[in-house]
Specification:
24% of the residues lie in helices and 32% in strands. It is an alpha+beta fold and 176 residues long. The radius of gyration is 16 Å and the shape is globular.
């Protein structure tokens, strides 16, 4: 396997540290993500700690496709000693060396409404922009107003494109 396009190193937002995902985060994150309401728009059910550990093992191992890199972070507020959510970017290498990233975020129910998702998404988009990623996309259910607000805060705008019942949001830097 070749080296990934990018590596998910640690970085910061004003109130958050974004730490590269580790398998050891599974137990704490299973508790953060245990509310079934988090799955209203994305489907599925909360993972058990063991199931989340298995998922994190796959994510940390990296994409089997050499043209795709999986970058995943957990969110830790600087004022609290706990994890509160995740952000992720699936980065695809473009033919001209310009990369595209599909991003997603989730913040546990107890920490929602505090701006953590918007702050983390903005920081992620900025981080990606410094690394040859010119197009950033997210897929958001049309009724998920909170995620639409996060996407807007991160600089993405809705398109007319839909995939699997979700609207595609996009940010393109430096032309198409």
């Amino acid at each position: 396997m070749t080296e990934p396009l990018l590596a998910a190193g640690p970085f910061s937002a004003p109130r958050l540290d974004l730490l590269p995902l580790r398998v050891e985060h599974a137990e704490e994150m299973a508790a953060v993500l245990r509310d079934p309401a988090l799955h209203t728009f994305i489907g599925g059910t909360p993972h058990s700690p063991d199931a989340l550990r298995t998922r994190y093992e796959r994510l940390v191992a990296g994409s089997p496709d050499q043209d795709v890199t999986w970058c995943n972070w957990v969110l830790r507020p600087r004022t609290e000693d706990c994890l509160v959510g995740t952000v992720e970017a699936t980065i695809t290498q473009g033919h001209t060396g310009r990369h595209t990233a599909e991003i997603a975020w989730v913040v546990g129910t107890p920490w929602q409404g505090r701006g953590f998702a918007s702050e983390a998404a903005r920081a992620l988009v900025e981080w990606l922009g410094k690394r040859s990623v010119r197009t950033v996309v997210a897929h958001i259910h049309p009724d998920h107003l909170a995620s639409a607000s996060v996407a807007t805060a991160a600089g993405l705008t809705p398109t007319e494109e839909e995939q699997d019942g979700e609207r595609r949001w996009r940010l393109v830097r430096g032309g198409r």
